[in-house]
Amino acid sequence: MRRVLGKGASKVERYIEVRIETLREERNKTNNESTHLILDKGILELTYVLELTKRENHPDE
Predict the structure, then answer these.
(1) CA geometry: angle at 29 spanning 28 and 30, to 5°?
(2) pTM score of the predicted model
């Protein structure tokens, strides 16, 4: 899915952004350190994927 909707984010980029935000909300709901580590790992990996996707979809930015 490399289609870009106008100058904004693609559907894939928007989905990843929503998932990152959801994981952040879940992290804020718990005080368990193990859960924090797991959620932090997921957030970090999705952030990398989002960055790579943006570079591919918007090379001139």
Answers:
(1) 95
(2) 0.80
